[in-house]
Amino acid sequence: MNTKNADHPIRVDADDIRPDTSQVDWSRAEVGRRTRRPGEKVEIFIDGAVGYQLRLIPSNKVLARFQSTLEAWPVVIAAVDGGRSPRTLSLDMVDVNGCTLTVSAGPRLERFARLANGGPHPNDRWAEQPVTEG
């Protein structure tokens, strides 16, 4: 039985080489913040969008128009909390020519609106910590 591997040259890719960090001053390093603080709102920007609209599916009736997505989140939440099914809502971007493109729709839109409007996320570290004002 031969357990010796064949001699294959090891290929080293330039992207796989770890940079030398021995001279880096790590005392000033900050941990990247991936989670939001409680109540922090998120605005999305889409290239070419001059506005956004909340549309009713399948009738395509426009319920509201917005300058930014920050204005849209509370309206989406209010529509769902008011009894409208999330499956009937679509958030569209509007470009300069008046053409529209769907940003999000259905239950995914509702979840995203609640999170982007400052609602808690199940994976947020901040949700577990009490908020103290000092």
What characteristics describe this protein?
2 helices, 19% strand, 134 residues, alpha+beta, single chain
Verbal overview:
The protein is an alpha+beta fold and 134 residues long. It has a domain at 39-118. It is 18% helix and 19% strand. It has a four-stranded antiparallel β-sheet. Helix 1 packs across helix 2 (106-116). The longest helix is centred in the middle third of the chain and has 13 residues, at 69-81. The protein is elongated, with a radius of gyration of 24 Å. The N and C termini lie far apart (72 Å).
Report helical residue fraction. Answer: 10-25%
Shape: elongated
Termini Cα gap: 72 Å
How does the helix and strand content classify structurally?
alpha+beta
Task: Report the sheet-strand fraction.
Answer: 15-25%
What is this entry, summarized?
The protein has 134 residues and is an alpha+beta fold. The protein has two helices and four strands; from the N terminus they run ββαββα. Strand 3 (89-95) and strand 4 (100-105) form a beta hairpin.
